[in-house]
């Protein structure tokens, strides 16, 4: 449930600091459904919406009961959110109230390979996609030239990652293999490393050149899905 809070900064963010925020128009690089990144470029890991600023990229994952913010560098390589703080300001279409929630740091086990993040715990399950503007105010960023940032995104629930399964290749796949031409992971011609392997990403079939590519697709299907 959205809770109306008076329009003032809290969670330790001084009002004077607002004037120092770097205001950036929302530039969404990845929304759902995701598209593949350019070769040699890292990819957001969580299927969220990404906004870039001068020094950073911020991936926002809207879930029904919480909103997460993941930090990356400009090349979309993960960076730690430790030391960051701030708030989210939500404005629902047709409602003049502003709803403010603190962003809290959430650590993860470094051995898990997962990425730490900031989180605002708020129930948005009754909000329809496109019916809310969400502004993020962050401070504590490590770059000297950009110690704080502000950006706005349009609310849309983040879709869960599709399930990736291995499927048998049949004669009916010949035309699809020819159309795809190259392995979505290695960018080499399908068939150069043996019989192509068919993967179902959700219901969409894609083809890879060898077993070594299977786990790469399973680990980050958004990087290859739709390529």
Structure description:
The chain has 227 residues and is mostly beta strands. Helices cover 6% and strands 32% of the residues. It folds into two domains: 140 residues, Immunoglobulin-like; 60 residues. The strands form two sheets. Strands 1, 2, 3, 4, 5, 6, 7, 8, 9 and 10 form a ten-stranded mixed sheet that branches. A three-stranded antiparallel sheet has the order 11-12-13. The longest helix is centred in the C-terminal third of the chain and has 7 residues. Strand 2 and strand 3 form a beta hairpin.
What are its keywords?
13 strands, mainly beta, 2 domains, single chain, ten-stranded mixed beta sheet, 227 residues, three-stranded antiparallel beta sheet, elongated, Immunoglobulin-like, 2 helices
Q: In the CATH scheme, what's the topology name of the largest domain?
A: Immunoglobulin-like
| SSE topology string | EEEEEEEEEEEHEEH
Number of domains: 2
CATH architecture of the largest domain: Sandwich
Tally of DSSP helical segments: 2
Number of strands: 13
Please write the CATH class name of the largest domain.
Mainly Beta
End-to-end Cα distance, whole Å, is 38 Å
The Cα radius of gyration reads 20 Å
Main sheet? 10 strands, mixed
Overall structural class, as computed from helix and strand content, comes to mainly beta
- Overall pLDDT: 82
The percent range for strand residues is 25-35%
> Runs with pLDDT <50, length 5+?
5-42
Q: For this entry, what is the oligomeric state of its chains?
A: single chain
What general outline do the C-alpha atoms trace? elongated
Helical content stands at under 10%
